[in-house]
Amino acid sequence: MIELIVSDMDGTLLDEHMDIPQANIDAIMHTYNKGIPFVVCTGRNFTEAKVKLDEAGIRCPIIGLNGSILFDRNGKVEYEVDIDDQTALDILNKGYEAGFYMEAMTSKNVYSSSLEQRILAITELIHEMNPEMSLEEARTRATQSNEVTTIDYRDDLRTLITDEGQAIIKITFVDADPENTIKPMATEIGEQYPDTHITSSFKYNIEINHADGTKGKAVEKYCQDHGYNIDNVVAVGDNFNDVSMLKAAGYSFAMANAEPEVKTYAKYETTSNYDGGVANAIYQSLKMAEHN
């Protein structure tokens, strides 16, 4: 039997327009009618994720920031796994010294080091998913998107810690030449700060969390707290920050558009995010469970 459905958002639940397609909505409602709950497990924070879920009429718990925080349906934080303050300051210092575009996430919001760079990053993401679209149109969409308008912009992200006393949950570095810049930095940070976990959700970024703040550990904890058998959980994802939960779940699906290496960690493959891949994974798993 299937006890729980868990899905990533970007590149998975969301389509090329960064919306939840009707096929996925219908499949989630179908599982609700069967008494099977649905949980989003995303690199996004609550506000970023909730906007898309509200548009689709889906109310569910949100495991955010790569597994480092759990929000209930109403946005109440049930737990969070923070990066040590000094470690977070050290990592942000490295980012500023290297000249990276950066984002820092807390339980309150996502904070960006540059509005222009945030627009550029979302423009590139939209254009990559819609290659037929002009860069000008992609930029217009990016500028008007929730992924830009709901973000808080700060001249110095370090003041979130030093002046405001906020705890940093996730840090993102973005650069146009990741192979020669942020990927070597990821190795350096991983060696210097063993209590961190470094992954990626987009080819131009790295994402830094506490070592205990992974999607896999979050899904395992959610199952333990709510009495679900993880062997009966469906997990769907497309990128490296999804690997830990794909390895943990009994029914793991990689999207057709997933990174090739990510597919090696999933038991099954579904269709792309352009083609209702989450819905396909849900129906496939329900059918498989009927015959087990």
UniProtKB/TrEMBL annotation:
GO terms for molecular function: magnesium ion binding; phosphatase activity. CDD domains: HAD_Pase (cd07516). GO terms for cellular component: cytosol. SUPFAM superfamilies: HAD-like (SSF56784). PANTHER family: 5-AMINO-6-(5-PHOSPHO-D-RIBITYLAMINO)URACIL PHOSPHATASE YCSE (PTHR10000:SF55), PHOSPHOSERINE PHOSPHATASE (PTHR10000). This is Haloacid dehalogenase. It comes from Aerococcus viridans.
